[in-house]
Structures are given as C-alpha cells and as structure tokens.
Design brief:
Blueprint lengths: L1 H21 L4 E7 L4 E2 L4 E8 L2 E9 L5 E2 L12 E7 L1 H7 L9 E7 L6 E8 L2 E4 L4
Parallel strand pairs: 1-8
Antiparallel strand pairs: 1-2, 1-5, 3-4, 3-6, 6-7, 8-9
Length: 136
C-alpha cells in the first residue's frame, strides 16, 4: 500500500510540475499513443495564427519524453484573440517508429477568445484514428 501511495504521489507531482511549467505560457500540447497507452515523445508540432485567409507561422517544437510541449506559444509575444492552428506531424513520427499511418499530419484549428489564460490541446493518437479536445 505504501508503494501505491508513493506511485500516486509521484504521478501527481509530475502532473503538477507540467502545469507549473506551463503556467507562464498560454499554450501547451500533449500527445498520447492510444495503441500503446504511452506518451509520444519526438512528435514535431507547428503553431500558426490565421490572418485573413493566410496562416503565419509563430513557433514549432517537439514533444518531450512525456509527450508534451509545455510552452508552445512564443515567449516574447502576448496571446491575441483569433484563430490558431496546431499541426502535429504524425506521419513523420509513425515513420520513425516503422508504423504505417493513415494521417500524415493532424491539424487542429481552435479559437482563442480570451476567456481563459491557458489553452491545452491533447492529441490521442493511433495509426488510423485520433481524438482531440480542449484540455486545461
């Protein structure tokens, strides 16, 4: 029972540290592999903002060992209202793992309305399907 309590405390601490590191940045992402149930480290992610009918690249990053990018929004910019697109380069990631995939990339377009200080976009991924939602 003591080991179980220690494991639960460790998991809670890991989640708390991810939240704390993301607190200063308004955008984070997390990729989990539904097939294995494990995080997906090494997924390249691109962030863009919509300006009229054009998209402007703001930043990019690669998920860490926990499958997270805790600070995807550029540090020197203030988050503005508008439409943004986060594109997960899933085809590259699956190819590196020698796994066939139907999706070469997963674009997620979302609206920032300024009602919350932080936006979190989790991606639940498998070779032939995905799901995403507005996290916190």
């Amino acid at each position: 029972m003591t080991q179980l309590k220690s494991l639960v405390a460790g998991i809670a601490l890991c989640g708390a540290s991810a939240i704390a590191s993301a607190a200063g940045n308004p955008l984070s992402v997390h990729v989990l592999n539904l097939e294995s149930g494990l995080p997906s480290p090494g997924v390249k992610v691109l962030l863009e903002k919509q300006n009229g009918d054009q998209w402007t690249v703001l930043n990019s990053g690669t998920t860490n060992e926990q499958g997270r990018i805790t600070a995807l929004y550029p540090q020197d910019m203030t988050l503005q209202k508008g439409n943004y697109r986060v594109t997960f380069k899933t085809g590259d990631w699956f190819a590196q793992h020698k796994t066939a995939s139907f999706f070469p990339e997963v674009p997620v377009i979302f609206a920032v309305d300024g009602t919350v200080p932080h936006y979190h976009i989790p991606l639940l991924l498998s070779p032939f399907g995905f799901s995403t939602y507005r996290g916190n």
